[in-house]
Amino acid sequence: MSALSQPATSQRHPLAVAVIGAGMAGRTHANAWRQVGTVFGSEGIPPIRLAAICDSYEPFARSARDSYGYERAVTDWHDIVDADDIDVVSVVVSNALHRQVAEDLVRAGKHVLCEKPLSDSLENARAMAELEANSQVVTGVGFNYRRHPSVAAIAELVRHGRLGDVTTFSGRYWCGYGVDPTVPMAWRYRGSQGSGALGDLGSHIIDVAEFVCGPIRSVRGGAFATIIDKRPPALEGVAGGRGMTVSAQAIETVENDDIAVFNMTFESGAIGTIVVSRVAFGLPNSMEFDVFGTQGRASFDLARSGEIIVDDTSTPEGFSGPRQVLSNPAFPYYKGGSSMDFAGVGRTQIEQFTYQARAFLDQVWGWTKGFLRCRPLRTGTEQCVSPMPSLDLRRPAGKPLISSDTTVITYPLQKLGVRHVHEYRGLHRLSP
Questions:
Q1: pTM, whole model, 2 decimals?
Q2: How is residue 237 annotated by DSSP?
Q3: Collapsing DSSP states into helix, strand and coil, what is residue 182?
Q4: Which of 29, 34, 243, 293 has the smallest number of CB atoms closer than 10 Å to its CB?
Q5: Which of 144, 166, 185 delimits the end of a domain?
């Protein structure tokens, strides 16, 4: 993406940022806010003041403060809400707390970037969207993989018809953070079916699927599996249920899914499949996808994030076949996105958060020609409930969608007779 022109000087007042949550993802947000002024400072970004880090576990808050250069560490998120010197807040806490924290921040007049998924239930998600619709602040939901230059480049190939008409999408997000049964209980393992691996990992790959291929119309053949149904209690200071093990007896019940799989049909008529797992042995963080069209195909592998694989009809006869294309300044977000912006350097998952921070700041100061905007809360929802294994998201005849941008899919929890929610987000095309 080419360098952007400098915004109006009237908009160059300092913006004070805070992060609520100092676990793995919270520290990543903290780093992104620190880096955004460094990476894009030459483009006239208003000064960023790193105001505060909050975490209920004080050692986490202090550690993140010291590591990333924030002014203060607090243990009560209400201190962030009440602070008069904070403008922008990242909410990076357990999903069940998103609504309460975000609502209080919005009412206090603060701009809110909330980690995905938006919330843990349809009721809470709708309430958050309604609140935002009647507020004067900027809000957004973090789906950072659409900021990866290689993923965004494939989306552009599809948008420009380089692959022909898309026919098939296959996406996998496999992690092994939960494969060890001695990994302690944490919020990731609580909540209804669908809020586990599907909500944690599936939300990412589902967003990528729609970002590349357009909105999902229907899903079917869904299945969940809980492989490790008991875990030991968490020790003090364990964040997120990743990596740390304990020797205590496994007595707490895992409530949600370790593995999820489903098939889908896009509004374009293309079909696809998604498989996610948090118990994939030997895979610390593996996200891959393939997209096939009538005139080509493209593939992405996070483990080889400095390249994409492309095969299309543009190659001379006799030389067709898959070819490696190194990420380069022609890819979105690449040029000017780091101190080394030449082909072959690549980008990482961490840098995606910096580009996300920049995109959100573009919205806060009203820069209309900036990066692809973060997803707003107020784009509306469509509730579609149907028995598994078939779930049709097509609206009834004569009934308009509240919005075509956001789709909330609820599945019945068969054994308990209750419903759980998973949020899908629609396609936002890259700026030309």
A1: 0.81
A2: T
A3: coil
A4: 243
A5: 144
